[in-house]
Amino acid sequence: MPSQDLALLRRLLRAKDRMDAASEEEWPVERLASVSGVSEAHFARSFKDAFGIPPHRYLLTRRIERAKALLRDTDQPIIDIAFQTGWQSLGSFGRVFKDITGESPSELRSREQGAAHQLDHVPHCFISAAYRPDLKTAVSEKRRQEAADKNDAEET
Amino acid sequence: MGIGVIGLYVHDQDEALDFYVNKLGFTVKTDAKNGSYRWLTVSHPDQPNFELGLFLPQEPVLDAATAQTMREMVAKGAMPPLVLSVKDCRAAYDAMRARGVEFTQEPIERFGSVDANFRDPSGNGWKMIQARG
């Protein structure tokens, strides 16, 4: 792997930081590219080279992570959490959430709120990282894979 | 007795010195050059016996490829988090921001405290947390 340009990496980190700070906002490529001072054509590729994940998928992990925390820590209605974490509809939030975490928002909430937590002395970034989904594949690919597994199971 | 020095890797020692001293208010503890090697440490005013090292990942301590990997890790923000305790997070945020510190999260009140995030010019990430009580 060729060594990456350090100044570029530092600027790509800035785009990642901005998504971290406001994952509920829309982050089209042109917005991220301008934060990093990179052309739109190169941004997604450069980001993936640097952080191992495409920018839109990274954003998804942060939104899901935040939604999980809100489901656990608050009693806000799920629809409010969906809008607060950047989704346009409750339906798409519920679908993507289940695709990624394997359970629905309400299932996660009742499970998490039933368990005791002792995280008072852990800095927030660590707690939040523990809730971040590990999205090694695209959500659509995960869906396809699960459908294929299901078909296999039915065939055998 | 206790921990004396913990080192950070930085991209440029002059830049790091300016940041930690002029923007964060640390003081230089040791600044010793020997050829291309520079032992540079700073201290927080309230912790004179603890030194934060601002070191370059460089040869011959590291081989060239490893040094480059470390520089990339720092620039990508992949180094472990650092925590700075302050009396008043919002006041510290205002003062540091006015001095040009790059904040990555504004002060947020939660878990009975207030915290904010900033990075040094190299990419090392700090969480600034208001001491409780």
Give me the strand/helix succession of chain A: HHHHHHHHH
Q: What is the number of domains of chain B?
A: 1
Biggest sheet of chain B, strands in spatial order?
A: 1-4-3-2
The first-level CATH class name of the largest domain in chain A: Mainly Alpha
How many alpha or pi helices of chain A?
Answer: 9
State the largest interface: A-B, 20 and 21 residues
Terminal-residue CA separation of chain B: 27 Å
| Strand elements of chain A, count | 0
- As a whole number of angstroms, the C-alpha radius of gyration of chain A is 18 Å
- CATH fold-level topology of chain B: 2,3-Dihydroxybiphenyl 1,2-Dioxygenase, domain 1
CATH topology of the largest domain in chain A: Arc Repressor Mutant, subunit A
- What is the annotated CATH architecture of the largest domain in chain A? Orthogonal Bundle
Mean of all residue-level pLDDT scores of chain A:
87
Name of the CATH architecture of chain B: Roll
Oligomer: heterodimer
Question: In terms of structural class, how would the helical and strand content of chain A be classed?
Answer: mainly alpha
Uncertain spans of chain A: none
Discrete helix count of chain B: 3
CATH homology superfamily of the largest domain in chain A: Homeodomain-like
Level of helix content of chain A? 55-70%
